[in-house]
């Protein structure tokens, strides 16, 4: 047997994805690197991911997906002897505002995905592709939107991810057929437009609809 056996360490890498109503963002540190944490001996992957989320938001991850596993360096967060388990986590930027709790590190900030060079983050591209493929068939948009959102915000998110334009009336009509998209009494002034009515996602009604055979598609 070889006397020198390299033992790989395991690192959890997470792409935190947010949406501000106009652009998709990811969370990076001051060196513009993805956020990561080494897996401790007494931890499983889910625990490590939860602690990574709590480090910056003091919240549990709500909607996340494991993208891949690789022993290749990911954006300088690990070397060739590190096994990286890569996740994407969807964030409501309103709830996950930085600087609002003592657990938020001052050196992390949101960065627009559209301003990153295509070759900078292959893993970010993987997260973008996953979200683009899934958002038509799962209500993932509600994890990215504020609790009370305007319909133009939601349409804008879909148009960015799917790289297509939707007819405003048809898009609104599809949403209005979904009982779990509830109209509120609140309004918000949109730039250059009249005030827009705000809506909210009723998760309990959505889960009940799924139990009755509803399949999300938009």
Describe the structure.
The chain starts with 8 loop residues before the first strand and ends in a 7-residue tail after the last helix. It contains six helices and nine strands; from the N terminus they run βββαβββααβααββα. With 218 residues, the chain is α+β, with helices and mostly antiparallel strands. Residues 1-7 have low confidence and may be disordered. The strands form two sheets. Strands 1, 2, 3, 4, 5 and 6 form a six-stranded mixed β-sheet that branches. Strands 7-9-8 form a three-stranded antiparallel β-sheet. A hairpin with a 4-residue loop joins β1 and β2. It is globular.
Summarize the topology.
Elements: E1 9-19, E2 24-28, E3 35-38, H1 45-57, E4 63-70, E5 82-90, E6 109-112, H2 122-134, H3 141-144, E7 149-150, H4 151-162, H5 168-176, E8 181-188, E9 196-201, H6 203-211
Parallel strand pairs: 1-5
Antiparallel strand pairs: 1-2, 1-3, 2-6, 4-5, 7-9, 8-9
Q: Runs with pLDDT <50, length 5+?
A: 1-7
Note the overall shape.
Answer: globular
Helix content: 25-40%
Level-1 CATH class name of the largest domain: Alpha Beta
Radius of gyration: 19 Å
Q: Name the beta content range.
A: 25-35%
SSE sequence, one letter per element: EEEHEEEHHEHHEEH
Major β-sheet annotation: 6 strands, mixed
Work out the helix count. Answer: 6
**CATH fold field value of the largest domain:** Nucleoside Triphosphate Pyrophosphohydrolase
Seen as an oligomer or otherwise, the chain set is single chain
Keywords:
single chain, 218 residues, alpha+beta, Nucleoside Triphosphate Pyrophosphohydrolase, Arc Repressor Mutant, subunit A, 6-stranded mixed β-sheet, 9 strands, 28% helix, globular
């Amino acid at each position: 047997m070889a006397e020198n056996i390299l033992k790989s360490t395991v690192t959890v890498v997470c792409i935190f994805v947010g949406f501000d109503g106009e652009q998709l963002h990811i969370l990076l540190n001051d060196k513009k690197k993805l956020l990561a944490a080494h897996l401790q001996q007494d931890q499983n992957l889910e625990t490590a991911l939860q602690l990574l989320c709590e480090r910056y938001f003091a919240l549990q991850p709500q909607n996340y997906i494991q993208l891949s596993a690789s022993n290749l360096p990911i954006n300088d967060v690990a070397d060739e002897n590190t096994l990286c388990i890569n996740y994407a986590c969807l964030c409501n930027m309103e709830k996950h505002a930085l600087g609002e709790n003592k657990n938020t590190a001052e050196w992390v900030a949101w960065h627009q995905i559209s301003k990153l060079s295509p070759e900078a983050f292959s893993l970010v591209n993987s997260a973008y592709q996953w979200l683009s493929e899934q958002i038509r068939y799962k209500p993932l948009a509600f994890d990215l939107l504020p609790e009370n959102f305007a319909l133009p915000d939601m349409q804008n998110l879909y148009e960015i991810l799917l790289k297509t334009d939707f007819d405003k009336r048809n898009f609104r009509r599809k949403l209005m057929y979904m009982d779990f998209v509830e109209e509120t009494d609140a309004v918000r002034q949109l730039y250059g437009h009249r005030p827009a009515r705000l809506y909210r996602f009723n998760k309990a009604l959505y889960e009940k609809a799924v139990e009755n055979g509803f399949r999300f598609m938009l």
